[in-house]
Amino acid sequence: MIYFDNVAKSYGGHAALTDVTLGIQSGEFVSIVGKSGAGKTTLLRLLLAEEHPTSGNVFFESTNVHRIKQSFIPEYRRRIGTVFQDFRLLPNKTAYENIAFAMEAAGRTDEEVRSDVPQVLDLVDLASKALHFPHELSGGEKQRVAIARAIISQPDVLIADEPTGNLDPTNTYDIIQILKKIHDMGTTVILTTHNKGVIDSLKRRVITMEGGKVVRDDPEGKYIL
């Protein structure tokens, strides 16, 4: 489904990625680990067509990501939901409105919004907080809204970039359970995290990066750095 073919990326002579070749199959749950500066974020930015490789190619299914016409990039990105450490919620909108806004931006109808938003809020166990604003939610609840917003358009892939970085162990556990639930529904999940406990508990594929290179790729790995 996703394939990085001998990809390199440099910034002003600094190599952020070097000769990265890896594939991620449809329906996988993959964790990418590595210290800060290892190349994890650059890898994700290339997949999202936010950056272009210095050399090599990135494919999504049979499409070369960096040959997609600029006018079609938004449509492509709708196939990939993204969740970040800092939530990125709109502060003046409720949980319901934050999710609805993503649907409206994608051109969905009012009827679809009324049907789908309550369902996805229920999926992330936030039905009772639909009318709460971000400042009225805990960190874990904000992240669940962010996840709901990311999956509301039923993307093929969900990227979760350090989604538990600001959360306590209880909320971290809850977020990982939601990601597993989303994966079980058929979505490919790509997780980046520094949390050793999360990686070890998942017992799923772990790609380890170091100095812009893939140094390990374990089908049922642990956090080894």
UniProtKB/TrEMBL annotation:
It is a peripheral membrane protein. Its main location: membrane. One of its GO terms (cellular component) is plasma membrane. The keyword Membrane applies. Keywords: ATP-binding, Cell cycle, Cell division, Cell membrane, Membrane, Nucleotide-binding. It comes from the Bacteria. Residues 2-224 form the ABC transporter domain. GO terms for biological process: cell division. One of its GO terms (molecular function) is ATP binding. It is found in: Cell membrane. Gene3D superfamilies: P-loop containing nucleotide triphosphate hydrolases. Homodimer. Forms a membrane-associated complex with FtsX. Part of the ABC transporter FtsEX involved in cellular division. Belongs to the ABC transporter superfamily. This is Cell division ATP-binding protein FtsE.
